[in-house]
Design goal:
The protein has 351 residues and is α/β, with parallel strands linked by helices. It has 8 helices and 21 strands.
Length: 351
């Protein structure tokens, strides 16, 4: 069936529908990764976004089953597809992988998510790079939908786990404040021997005992979550080890008095180079975010830890006097290079 991707500036791209034949609207963004569409589509940080894959052939290795209830064996980054829609150049009609349970087309149908193939994703990416990420919609047949800007919503309400969950049996307990956490972050912490108590961001924290704190990744504009800043400041006053990742990094910076701003088209890839300003070493990282911390607004009590080599944006902070650190990139990768897994080791050394 014919389908269209319509951008808010009036540019149209025609293609073929796959997955669910339903209209959807959201922010159109692109990811330059060559692999990892199951992980990307299930990453809560893509909530409200129509994801474009710049790699031309998608679906050739199928999709694994979600996995058992044990989070360490989970194959997805959450329990469902989080992206609003999927835009690709060419959909593989066949797939082959030892762990595949279904095709990409069947998966999107099952999850009720529309996809559109046959799109010139190179041309689309050029539009987004020149004009910035913009609102768009996928429509099929006579179906239509109004444009929707997810950045005006508090998207964490749509992705956060509703109940507290506990993982592991380590000597040190982490309070993981959940804004839409990737499963791989939890797995990386469990591998380092922590016990984790994952709580929704709105939960009463006074009933929990913990040795350290993790501020998770999640979707949306961090400025929409100003109601979290006093809570994070109160946690900082406890002087316990704290790690912020992606949205957690941005909220930590806002709580410290810094500012954030929207990037033109964001960082969504598995090849973003960052510089460790403390060691002078460069690393290749996985990233997924549309906002950044203003380096010029970071208070003097914080050390700019990592910096993006491409555009000089903030990629991490370390407090001068407290055991508190953060990264804008994803040290757990999934998908992508695991070069920066040492960030979790640095966090563990804070105890």
């Amino acid at each position: 069936m014919k389908a269209e991707l319509i951008l808010a500036n009036g540019i149209h791209f025609e293609g073929e529908t796959f997955g669910a034949s339903v209209p959807v609207s959201g922010e159109v963004v692109f990811n330059t990764g060559m692999v990892g569409y199951p992980e990307a589509l299930t990453d809560p940080s893509y909530c409200g976004q129509i994801l474009t894959s710049t790699y031309p052939l998608v679906g050739n290795y199928g999709v694994p089953a979600c996995g058992s209830g044990d989070i360490q064996t989970a194959k997805w980054e959450s329990s469902r597809i989080q992206a609003a829609g999927f835009v690709i150049s060419s959909l593989s009609s066949e797939y082959n992988h030892w762990d595949a349970a279904m095709s990409l087309d069947a998966w999107l149908k099952k999850e009720g998510i529309p996809g559109i193939s046959g799109i010139d994703t190179r041309a689309l990416t050029k539009v987004l790079r020149e004009h910035g990420s913009m609102i768009g919609k996928i429509v099929t047949g006579d179906q239509d939908i109004a444009f929707y800007d997810p950045n005006k919503d508090q998207l964490i309400k749509k992705v956060v786990m509703e109940k507290t969950a506990e993982y592991g049996r380590g000597d040190k307990t982490l309070l993981l404040l959940d804004f839409g956490c990737k499963n791989s972050i939890i797995t990386a912490l469990l591998h380092r021997g922590f016990r984790i108590v994952r709580v929704p961001y709105y939960e009463d924290l006074s009933k929990y005992r913990y040795d350290g704190i993790v501020l998770s990744s999640g979707p949306g504009d961090p400025a929409q979550y100003a109601f979290m800043l006093e809570r994070i400041r109160a946690l900082l006053e406890e002087r316990k080890p704290m790690l912020g990742i992606c949205l957690g990094h941005q909220l930590l910076a806002l709580a410290a008095g810094a500012k954030t701003y929207k990037l033109p088209y964001g960082h969504r890839s598995q090849n973003q180079p960052v510089l460790d300003r403390l060691s002078g070493r460069a690393y290749v990282t996985t990233q997924n975010h549309g906002y950044a911390v203003d380096l010029n607004s970071i208070p003097a009590s914080w050390i700019p830890w990592f910096e993006n080599i491409n555009d000089g944006t903030s990629e991490g902070l370390w407090h001068k006097n407290l055991p508190v650190l953060s990264t804008q990139f994803h040290p757990e990768a999934a998908p992508g290079p695991v070069d920066t897994g040492f960030v979790f080791d640095e966090f563990k050394r804070c105890f």
